Amino acid sequence: MQNNNQKKVAIELININKSYQKGSNKVVVHDNFNLSIAKGEFVALMGPSGLGKSTLLNLIGGLDLPTSGSVIIDNQRIDTLSEGKLSTWRAENIGFVFQSHHLLPVLTAQGNVELPLLLTALNSKQRKQHASLALRLVGMEERAKHLPKELSGGQEQRVAIARAIVSDPKIILCDEPTGNLDRKTADEILTLLTTLNKYFGKTIVMVTHDLRASEYASRVINLEKYIHDSKQNQLSAVEVNS
Amino acid sequence: MNIFQLVWVNSFRKKTRFSLTCISVMIAFFLFSILAGINHALTSNVSSNNQLRLLTSHKISLARSLPINYQQKIAVIAGVESVSYASWFGGFFKDETNQLAVLAVDHNSYFEMFDEYYISKLQLEQWKKTRTGLVVGQAIANKYDWKVGDRVPLNSSIWMNREGSFTWPFTVAAIYQSADGASGEKQIFFQHSYFDKARAYARNTVSWLTPKVTEQADVDEVSQRIDKLFVNSNGATRTTTEQVFIKERVQQFVDMAMVIKLVVIAVFFTLLLIVCNTMVQSNRERLNESAMMKALGFSSLFLIAQVYLESFFILALGALFGCMFALLCLVWLSQLFANFLPGIAIDNSHYLSVALLVLTAATLCSLLPALTLNRLTISKTLGAKA
Ligand SMILES: Nc1ncnc2c1ncn2[C@@H]1O[C@H](COP(=O)(O)OP(=O)(O)O)[C@@H](O)[C@H]1O
Ligand SMILES: [Mg+2]
């Protein structure tokens, strides 16, 4: 958290505690967790299942709130926003790509990509243009008129990425975006994400099990090790102080 | 693309389910509208050209007869122009399945008063001279292929004649037409004097009298005057306008207002169940997409509005078609029952109730999905798969 002083910080998680109530049991997922991601980074978040990777992504994207601690994105604290404000904030600042694309089956690729733009002030012609541009960026302009069921898994994921970038968010959050894809298609998707990161300056946080992801990401966080190391640091800090 | 297009494509996502639901809604509103149309005929005061004609019957029951001399007694009451009378023959031709509306009427006055039956002067005169003559509606004459001069025996389920038979000999003497077409040409008339002399019992009585008031007279006042005259006798009367009389007879069979209320309630709950079920189901199938839309920044309100509009769309479409078919049917029914039950129609207030029903049902049907959508946690829903 101290190594990014020179660079501008995009994402900052400070003293995050996150626990779920499961019946009478309290499941602690994150305990005093800290993380800082600089603008323009492409972070691959790895580690075994159940460790809280998706939870972290949801916290960053404002899909979930921490039990305590602060989530600061672009110098704005978002965990204190009301649900409505958070919704609007999400629409403007975050693009999501999930393992399952969750495209609306009744809309064409073009329609699906246009969907988030309904929340903007753009008129229908502008919405069309923006959506077409996003589809071209992911190489799907020729499939604009196709319904999701007429597309392959990789193509669907491309459309989902187009939908994530169409409102030009600065941050893209991906939860196992290649989890359902074969090697070749997965590589294509990862290349696409790299392009978005390198040439369009998007900050990307990607949860993945894909070992090859490190070839694409600018920084790989092994969550298990990361948590262990920061615990050690905290302990030594306490020792120094006392 | 906008929310309406989204609602449109989402509605037709499961075409079979959409159609079936829509058809149920249609049937419900069809029934509702048909009943409302009939109720309109029963409750509204239909203006017609025979507002001057009254109907005086026994106070207790139409099955009880009145003395024939009431004709003279009523005729002298102020405001009464003329009085005719009729008796119910309870007729059928050959066997009981061929029921006929046969009336014995005062041949001197009846058709002068009931001028909606078109009879040629010649035939009318002929009938008045023929003791056993029948005046037959054109539709009935066509049905049984009867011509003037034909000898036709008719049976009565009520009246025995002096020969001890329930079969009465008649001769077709005249055929009448009606402006209402076939539906108004289904009655048969014969001379009351023949009836009265030939029947084995209850002579000098009539089933009901039909006083006609003068143009200037107050119908209610005259009615009261008539009933007052007989109030303390065995033959106490009840006098109403012809219209009211017809309506009351129909209402004897069914309490229409009650039936309509029950049907509306039944229809409404069926509607709710069917449309609710459809909405809950389709909402459940789409939870992932809804969560995704929430993640994209759509508010719960947007998603709820979508569900509401979808419920509204399916209900409004069904209601529209239901009302349209009912309207067509009612036009047909009103022609069919032009004489029997005039005034079958839908008035504008019915469309208001339909609109209110649609809006209320749409609201109630969106309630459960709205709760689900409002509680929907994005991370949990998407996390289940991601
Ligand atoms: N909505 C929730 N309610 C209760 N427990 C949850 C919820 N979401 C996640 N968890 C729990 O939190 C832990 C971390 O989950 P998650 O962040 O999905 O892990 P990962 O993505 O690393 O596999 C798991 O033990 C999971 O059961
Ligand atoms: Mg996960």
TrEMBL record, chain A:
Molecular function terms from GO: ATP binding; ATP hydrolysis activity; transmembrane transporter activity
Question: Which parts of the sequence belong to the ABC transporter domain?
Answer: 11-240
Q: Which domain of life is it from?
A: Bacteria
Short name of one Pfam family: ABC_tran
Enzyme Commission (EC) number? 3.6.3.28
What are the alphabetically sorted keywords of the record?
A: ATP-binding, Hydrolase, Nucleotide-binding, Transport
Q: Which InterPro entries match?
A: AAA+_ATPase, ABC_transporter-like_ATP-bd, ABC_transpr_LolD-like, MacB-like_ATP-bd, P-loop_NTPase
Return the SMART domains for the record: AAA
A GO CC annotation given for this chain: plasma membrane
Family statement drawn from the similarity comment of this UniProt entry: Belongs to the ABC transporter superfamily. Macrolide exporter (TC 3.A.1.122) family.
This chain belongs to the protein called Phosphonate-transporting ATPase
Species this protein is from:
Colwellia psychrerythraea
Q: Which lineage is the organism of this entry classified under, starting from the top rank?
A: Bacteria, Pseudomonadati, Pseudomonadota, Gammaproteobacteria, Alteromonadales
TrEMBL record, chain B:
Keywords assigned by UniProt?
Cell membrane, Membrane, Transmembrane, Transmembrane helix
What cellular component GO annotations does this protein have? Answer: plasma membrane
Membrane-crossing segments per the record: 20-42, 258-280, 315-338, 350-371
Coarsely, its chief localization is: membrane
Report the membrane topology from the UniProt record.
Multi-pass membrane protein
Q: Which residues form the ABC3 transporter permease C-terminal domain?
A: 263-376
Its annotated compartments are: Cell membrane
On the tree of life, the source organism's domain of life is Bacteria
The record places domain MacB-like periplasmic core at: 23-228
InterPro entries given in the database record: ABC-4/HrtB_transporter, ABC3_permease_C, MacB_PCD
**The keyword Membrane is annotated on this UniProt entry:** yes
The protein depicted here goes by the name MacB-like periplasmic core domain containing protein
| Source organism per UniProt | Colwellia psychrerythraea
